[in-house]
Amino acid sequence: MTCKSSFIYSDDLLQYHFHSDHPFNQKRVLLTKELLESSKQINGQDMITPRMATEEELLLFHDLDYVEAVKKASEGQLNTGSGLEFGLGTEDTPIFPGMHEAASLLVGGTLTAVEAVMSGKSLHSLHLGGGLHHGFRRKASGFCIYNDGAVAIKYIRENYNLRVLYVDTDAHHGDGVQWAFYDDPNVCTFSVHETGRYLFPGTGNVNERGIKEGHGYSFNLPIDAFTQDESFLHVFEIAFKEVVDYFKPDIIITQNGADAHVFDPLTHLCTTMKIYDQIPKLAHDLAHEYCDGKWIGLGGGGYDIWRVVPRAWAQIWNVMKTGLPASGDLPSEWVNKWQNKATVPLPKYWHDTDDINPHIPRKAEITDKNEKLLLNLLKYTKNTI
Amino acid sequence: MLVEEIMNTNVITLSPRASIAEALHLLQKHRIRHIPIINDQNHVVGIVSDRDVRDASPSILDRDADQLVLQNEIQTIMTRQVVTVHPLDFVEEIARIFYDEEFASVPVVQNNQLVGIVTEKDMLYTLIQLTGTHVQGSQIEVKVPHIPGMIPKVTSLFGKRNMNIISVLVYPFYDDPNYKILVFRVQTMNPNPVIQELREAGYELMWPNNIPEPKV
Q1: What residues in A contact B195, CB-CB < 8 Å?
Q2: Residues 59-78 of B with CB under 8 A from A
Q3: Does B90 share its domain with B165?
Q4: CATH (domain of B100)
Q5: For FRET with A43, which of A304, A320, B29, B143 sits at 20 to 30 Å CA-CA?
Q6: Does residue B105 lie within any of the structural domains?
Q7: CA nearest to A143, candidates A110, A197, A195, A106
């Protein structure tokens, strides 16, 4: 199956750069694009250049004084004290010149993807520069300045009045997007992530179900630290299918943080490329079954930028384009080009070899706990009428 | 933290002569579980809980029941020995009362006047605030010898990294009196550098940060 898909890309996406020691590194997007080019999966016709989000669009979700503060910070005009109120100038979101423009482009890229799908130009669209799910209405946090997902969903609601399902597979809870639509019955959020007991941001409990009219439209699967492939895929697949069938969305937006991998330095989850083959495949199948194919993929976290993120993200595109993830050897052209710049040996194959699976003594217990969570989540996916 | 900081000053009350039916109505309307009973001078003379009222009401299964019992005065069923607290009492002390007495609400009295009420729910809300789990952060647990000076030593590492601490809790280490667990919630998505420093400084970290493996 070949679907008309678009890949939102520009080298300018790499301008979103805090400093060289910061774990959030948008070189991942370039590495992914080149991996796809080397494997002949993408060409110039697939690509769309992202536009900037206008200030009016940012204000669909963000507060004016927050945007003003980011603009000031962007020009070096914000003093440290007044930045902290907005989460600007912290360890996680330090101030850098041009940050307003860089962050606006990430939002604009996601809006470009929305427009590509809504105009019918593409069935699926992928913007790996987006997925900055920790951005709050008036606060930067967790490496995120503007929340492109939240802005885009507001944009879809206002301009097209579609029911939006947001699915977040980043290892961190998709809190910014969840809280943005916590009382909205037309936007359903579903986040699978490592339990917040130890990991940032700490929220995303299975009991967070939404409030007021939005009650029952917020789903969380906070899986245990050291969860591996089988348990992850088992609970995720069942939950995703049940949530889609319950909510019956018109469009699906996926946030594809790639930090649940065993190599990722920031989280305690222990999955492999297996989940990154299956996550987009599931999204693809369900988008076709329920939404006439309307699916927008975004990036997100992912801090092993050499061994994990390029492969994981390239598979989203492979699935969008061909319906299936790639397998076998990685193109040697890509490996050879980047190996001497990489800090670790680059992988040779699309899949991971079994030897990277650590032995987890508590595996049975973890699997059982995750299963209990799934049952808890599913209490709200049955239409009672 | 003081009771006056967490108490609810908008108290729903009844007079001793009010009917049980009125109490039932108020409990349902305001979705509350306790009503202090006050006299003309605003003195607390009793308290009724939703359970007291329910016990005094006819069973919903008994259709022929005499609804007239609901017209009895509330003072016939109220508890007269009321445990009250003062606005300047400590929140910790109320937790003790809730735990020991097994009820879930205490009126707050100052100069013999009812000035507020604190419920178990207010107490739990305060606990959530104290633990800091309602704000974004990462949690790190460090096992330290139970001797003076450990907290400043450990926290200086957070300070050096410009890492804001949301909350600090000190837990016992099981039954071992020689150690304590320091629980920090820090405002960062990337606690790795500080975890690394804690390890290098020889501190013992608790799960899941105690094992550099199996994460490769």
Answers
A1: none
A2: none
A3: no
A4: 3.10.580.10
A5: A304
A6: yes
A7: A106
A19 touching chain B per CB within 8 A: no
Residue B50 domain boundaries: 3-128
Average pLDDT, chain A: 96
Residues B121 and B20 in one domain: yes
pLDDT, tens digit, 9 for 90 and up, residues A112-145:
999 999 999 999 999 999 999 999 999 999 999 9
Residue of A nearest to B216 (CA): A263
Q: Do B105 and B147 belong to one domain?
A: no
Domains contained in chain B, number: 2
The answer to whether residue B189 sits within a structural domain is yes
Instruction: Convert the pLDDT of each residue in A353-363 to its tens digit.
Output: 999 999 998 99
pLDDT tens readout for residues B70-129: 899 999 999 999 999 999 999 989 999 999 988 899 999 999 999 999 999 999 999 888
Report the gap between the CA of A208 and the closest CA in chain B (Å): 12
Distances, alpha carbon A251 to alpha carbons A164, A284, A300, B216, in Å = 5, 11, 19, 37
Angstrom distance (rounded) from CA A63 to CA A74: 17
d(C-alpha A116, C-alpha A130), whole Å: 15
- Residues in B closer than 8 angstroms to A262, CB to CB, are 214-216
Size of interface A-B (CB pairs under 8 A): 75
Assess if residue B45 is contained within a domain: yes
For the A5-378 domain, the top CATH level (class) is alpha beta
Surface of A (80-99) touching B: CB under 8 A: 90-92
B:121-160 residues touching chain A, CB 8 A cutoff: 133, 135-140
Residue with structure tokens 């890492």?
B163
